[in-house]
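To whoever is covering the structure queue this week,

Two jobs came back overnight. Logging them here so there's a record in the thread.

Job A:
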Amino acid sequence: MWSFHDNLRAQIRLLNEYNSEKNTTKIIENIPYLVDGIKRLLSIEDLRLFPNSMELLSEEDWKEFYTGDEEIGWMLLVKPTPYPAIVEEKYVHPSEDFAQRDLSFSLDNTFHYDEGYMTPEQVNLLLRFLPVDITYVDENDKVVFYNRGDDRVFPRSKGIIGREVRFCHPPKSVDMVLRIVAEFKAGTKDVAEFWFNFKGRIIHIRYFAIRDNEKKYKGVIEMSQDITEIQKLEGQKRLLDWD
């Protein structure tokens, strides 16, 4: 089905280009291809996709699909009636969904997070290989974590763990950092960001307020990223160029 969707998207993009050029002739010439493609897609859905789905999928599968669609959002103006019908059931956000399900992997030594399960080793690997530097300061203004990547923008020492954030920045920037923390705590701001040249590279730094489900302040996360190569991107790249 993805290939049909991709073809339709390509046709829509082409028509948008002709529209921007006010090329009426090309629009009239190509609209029938788009209409035929949509009709073909709907026909395949009605005659193959949905009948086979009704045979292969259980009612529990359909319920899970509907929950996932609820999270993503609907393309239709009117929200569709769920199948099977939901009787006195309340939508549960994935972050609050702790229902036990059959999984294709072991839960040994794992912890449940908002959207899945991971072992401490997997969490550590994920944080180590993230292409951004992360430092987490808790609600008491103490540095409690930073990730150790191979190419950190700014070096970190284990000595900062447990240290107050005011003692982790040079005098020229500490006042700014303290103001950010104060605004986050007061709930007046949630994000602060900066970018500048550093040793010939362009560095992007963002601070995010961390809050729990009751919106109570739980700290701040600092994210630093070298965006030099990202800024050079132009056009599109949709194919793998390894060969």
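Job B:
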Amino acid sequence: MERWAESHPTHLHIFGSFMKMVRAMNFDLKLPLYHEVAVVPAHDQTFEYINCHTGTGLLRCAKVG
């Protein structure tokens, strides 16, 4: 996830646009932001993708067959 955040063009564009807005507001945001990461044992993980491109989410890592 960290590698993706550092290099994915869409994320870089969104983050860059956000930082421009923050600078324009003189870093005076009234919006608290946070994120969470959870590490879940493999046997407790369930993912369901319906009609999604094979590169979506974890589908690109899935073993099919």
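Note for Job B: Residues 2-61 form one domain.

Please reply-all if you pick these up so we don't duplicate work.
Q.
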